[in-house]
Amino acid sequence: MRVRPPADSDRDGTMIPDKTIPAVSFTTARTGASAKSNELGMRPMQSRAYDKRGEQYLLIKSPPASGKSRALMFVALDKLANQGVKQAIICVPERSIGASFGSEPLSKYGFFADWEVAPQWNLCNTPGADDPKVAKSKVKAVAEFLASDAKVLVCTHATFRFAFDELGVEAFDNRLVAIDEFHHVSADAGNRLGAQLAQLIGRNNAHIVAMTGSYFRGDAIPVLAPEDESKFETVTYTYYEQLNGYEHLKVLDIGYSFYTGPYTDKISALLDPKVKTIVHIPSVNSRESLKDKHREAEDIMQHLGEWEGVDPVTGFHLIRTIDGDVIRVADLVDDDPVKRDRVVTALKSPQGRADKEFVDVIIALGMAKEGFDWIWCEHALTVGYRSSLTEIIQIIGRATRDAPGKTRARFTNLIAEPAADDPQVVEAINDYLKAIAASLLMEQVLAPRFDFTPKDAGPKEGFDYGPDGYVEGKTNFGVNDHGQMHFEIKGLKLPKSIEATRICREDLNEVIAAFVQDKSNVERGMFDPEVVPEELTQLRMGKIVRDKYPELNDEDQESVRQHAIAAMTVTQQAKAALMGDGEELSASTAFIDGVRKFALSVTDLDIDLIDKINPFSATYAVLAKAMDEKTLLQVQAVINAKKVNLSYDEARALAERALEFKRERGRLPSLTSQDAWERRMAEGVAYLQHHASKAAADG
User: Fold this and answer.
1) What's the domain count of the chain?
2) Of 395, 416, 437, which marks where a domain is finished?
3) First-to-last C-alpha distance (Å) of the chain
4) Is residue 23 within 8 Å of 439, Cβ to Cβ?
5) Which residues contact 73 (CB under 8 A, 6 or more apart)?
6) Looking at the domain assignment, is residue 37 inside a domain?
7) Which CATH number is 103's domain given?
8) Pair 406, 498 in one domain
């Protein structure tokens, strides 16, 4: 291999500015709290989980690098020693993650016992354990473990599924089943792991600990059925708490870069051999793929420098860069089992995890995503859109580990830019929309938790309301030591039921995920100049809530809707506040500062005002600055060309809002009103009247 000239450079070698959207930039407080341990050797999230160790069903929602694996060890050891649990079975989605659950001398840090996993019971160390055929062959080993006096087994999700099918639900009585990366579970009947979990809950003789960094899936299907989810005690540790508590990492940047032609020609503008990087190339079935994954990996290495051979011990490629340095590249794209096992084993080794200089770049396709522990990663570069928002968040998590000397990390999604002469322009635009949805969700995930109350409900203990303190009628914003923000909102409905209260406290991001994953919402909000904001905030978000939580009554559904749209709007308006009047969005400014700026600029925040704000307007403003104007207009034209007229369901939802309008104002909405939302409600009523008249005439 030879060093290639940079694809995006002038003749003199000067780099052409990269067209990247700075979707999110998070500046941490670097308090060091995330790494501080108590007298038992527990970090903050782990201590929070341990406090709930007596629960039979425990759900831990916590970001990558927050210590979920060790939290499970603490909880499991207590259950084994003090709660009558016979054995603990740890299930991970792929075998590389099994290393996170290896033996740990916890007593060294103050705990009452050590975490010990005998080599024979870590089934993830079997070569090829990710292969379904190999996983199925491990059922015998699981049966032997259950019949033994051993305490801990580590296996893949696949192995557990096969063992459950063969051994039956009763085989796991009085045992702890821990499921890592819990978002792989689904309430859908076709999801085997989800169905097996439902059987375990129904039998009610096993303990379950579920762990995930993103409690939502890439589809609209819930992880758990509501009646099962209500049985879990939840421990939540937010991204905001985690990142603010780091010692070293100061800034996390998240952006989207666009290219035309083969992506391998653009990648040199984004790859820096001096930056520890994980590159995820696109699936061979995707539009972005060049249909030869091995050649794509070779091209990326060629951009990095001149190939000098392969390390015989680790299997890493040795590349000499243009600066004369030799870097080490781990190729996880090559699916030769011998080569891959050598590379995976090296990456999982103590040196691979602890030594910063051990490896410099990792190129992967389906691996090195969730649970992959390489703390030195500074840049997660992903080529092509990912249909699963969960997958994107997991990939971003590879770069968010805290490590000495690592002050900045970033995620870049390299996406094909639509071109007018591209026959697949509609598909390319869909990729745009998915990237936008991912950025919206990441902004929400990184934001602090919001605590909303009605206007003048009074101050909340532990919140700082500024130098003047809380002033009734004037103050609407406060923040506490955990980064949680309290907002007072006029007209806000509080949840009444226990379940609705839990949703407003724990699951608003899941509601927002469902909202932004509906492509039509993004299309209307971003590119339809005639959209009325209330169609999105009231109708579309209202439908999401009704579909997601049909067991709630109308009043609680409306409360959840208001809380979800308030959380999204506050975050988006914070971004708008940072942009200022015509200013570029600064990648060096923490968008979270904009939350404070927005909150302090609104003296009388009310739910009607929130409903009148297009939740996608700030994102469109950012996109308009980063994209070519011709391309932006083309995207808008393609989307508007397929816009459909009012549907019966939409008209019915509008008519329901019109009845509320009549109760409040004593009249129905008018088709000639100056207010766009009132006219839209009137159109809904007119549509239903026309539909009823036509049905009567036809009948």
Assistant:
1) 3
2) 416
3) 76
4) yes
5) 101, 104, 106, 115
6) yes
7) 3.40.50.300
8) no
DSSP per residue over 593-630, as a string? HHHHHHHHH-SS-BHHHHHTS-TTHHHHHHHHHHS-HH
b/e sequence 216-249, b meaning 16+ C-beta within 10 Å: bbbeeebbbeeebbeebebbbbbbbbbbbbbbbb
241 phi, psi to nearest 5 deg? -65, -45
In a domain, 84, yes or no: yes
Inter-CA distances, 415 with 191, 260, 288, 573, 689, Å? 30, 9, 8, 26, 46
Under 8 Å between Cβ of 348 and 371:
no
Contacts 24+ apart (CB under 8 A), 344-349: 344/95, 344/96, 346/313, 346/314, 346/315, 346/316, 347/96, 347/374, 348/96, 348/99
Which pairing describes strands 306-310 and 317-320: parallel, antiparallel, or unpaired? antiparallel
Backbone angles phi, psi at 464, to 5 degrees: -95, 120
Out of 185, 207, 242, pick the residue that ends a domain. Answer: 242
Task: Evaluate whether residue 433 is within a structural domain.
Answer: no
Q: Are residues 328 and 378 in the same domain?
A: yes
Q: What is the CA radius of gyration of the chain?
A: 26
Helix 676-698 and helix 648-665: axis angle, to 10°? Answer: 120
DSSP for 375-418?
Answer: TT--EEEEES--S-HHHHHHHHTTT----TT--EEEEEEEEEPP
E runs forming strands in 193-248: 207-212, 233-236
Q: Are residues 493 and 411 in the same domain?
A: no
Do the strands 251-259 and 20-27 form a parallel or antiparallel pair, or are they unpaired?
A: antiparallel
For residue 11 the two structure tokens come to: 């003749």
Predicted local confidence at residue 424, as pLDDT:
63
CA distance 133 to 147: 23
Give every CB contact of residue 672 below 8 A, 6+ residues apart in sequence. Answer: 679
pLDDT at residue 5 in the model = 37
Regarding whether 358 and 473 lie in a shared domain, the answer is: no
The residue behind tokens 């923490």 is: 590
The closest alpha carbon to 558, from 627, 611, 482, 485, belongs to: 611
Please check whether residues 47 and 171 belong to one and the same domain: yes
Q: Which domain holds residue 461?
A: 449-643
262 and 217 assigned to the same domain: no
pLDDT of residue 2: 39
Q: What tokens appear for 90 in the block?
A: 């740890």
> Would you tell me how many other CB atoms lie within 10 Å of the CB of residue 482?
17
CB 611 within 8 A of CB 538: yes
Does residue 40 lie in a domain region? yes
Same domain, yes or no, for 456 and 393?
no
Q: Are 61 and 505 in contact (CB under 8 A)?
A: no
Q: Is residue 446 classed as helix, strand or coil in its secondary structure?
A: helix
Cβ atoms of residues 543 and 534 within 8 Å: no
CA angle 468, 238, 108 (to 5 degrees): 115
507 and 358, same structural domain? no
Residue 677 DSSP code:
H
| Low-confidence spans in the chain with pLDDT less than 50 | 1-18, 187, 217-220, 581-589
- Which pTM value belongs to this model? 0.75
Q: How confident is the model at residue 131, as a pLDDT?
A: 61
Task: Find out whether 407 and 251 touch, Cβ atoms under 8 Å.
Answer: yes
State residue 3's pLDDT score: 40
What pLDDT score does 376 carry? 93
What span, in angstroms and rounded, lies between the C-alpha atoms of 627 and 639? Answer: 16
